[in-house]
Amino acid sequence: MFGLFKSSQFTPSKLFQTIHTDMHAHWLPSIDDGAKTLEEALQLITSLHQMGYRKLIATPHIMQDYYKNTPEIILEKLTLVKEAVASLPISITLEAAAEYYLDEWMLRQLQAGSPLLTFGERYLLFETAFLNRPPFLEEAIFLMKSQGYQPVFAHPERYVYLWEDATLLEQLYTQGVHLQINLNSLVGYYDKEAKKLAEQLLTQQRIGFVGTDCHHERHLVALQKIKKPSLLKNLAALPLLNKQI
Ligand SMILES: [Fe+2]
Questions:
Q1: What is the 203 CA–ligand 1 centroid distance (Å)?
Q2: Residue range 35-56, pLDDT digits in tens
Q3: Is residue 3 part of a domain?
């Protein structure tokens, strides 16, 4: 379908409309390090809609040491935000899942078969520590898959241990772990190395999902730098799963 667009038509707005669904963001208010208030949440949702998104999936952190969120807490917040958004003059679909931090608590949840929040076809978004590979990474992925979840690795381009071990990322991709890149990595918002790895995954067409990972308005301001025609074209050409959820 993307062959139908001429290169001049790859505007940021067209790109975000084509991506359709943002599946990684922190706009549910006051339950993690994202939006602090309902007003801030509504502002972020309005901005994402103005950018071109038509469906938003909030993914608050679940991290035993810092953010002890549960499916109940998250879904209750979603109801609150949906009620407030209903009074805004915009049409947008809102859902919620979670971004699970792979710690020992999460491993125990997987071992116990506890119900976890997912989006789409049982896609399970997870993140890890930035510096060191969790010793139970493979075991956790095995447990996710054996319970019928489809693991989605949040922003792999940002992990130091993956910059140093290309084989591990290759192995995870080959095992069917979906890779989710933060769009802001491609404009250099994070580290130089994150940009480099994101560009490499883009060239290899190994990106399953893209997300804003939006915590605050500054993340959306940074996203306005996605303007380079070649970048817009390469992103639009990806067979992204965002469009199917
Ligand atoms: Fe996140």
A1: 23
A2: 999 999 999 999 999 999 999 9
A3: no
Q: Is residue 196 part of a domain?
A: yes
Task: Give the domain CATH number at 66.
Answer: 3.20.20.140
- Ligand 1 centre distance from Cα of residue 193 (Å): 18
C-alpha 89 – ligand 1 centre gap (Å)? 27
Residue 103 CB contacts under 8 Å (≥ 6 apart), including other chains? 63, 64, 65, 134
Number of domains in the chain: 1
CA dihedral sign, ordered 60, 65, 70, 76: negative
pLDDT range class, residue 6, cuts 50, 70, 90: low
Domain of 201? 11-244
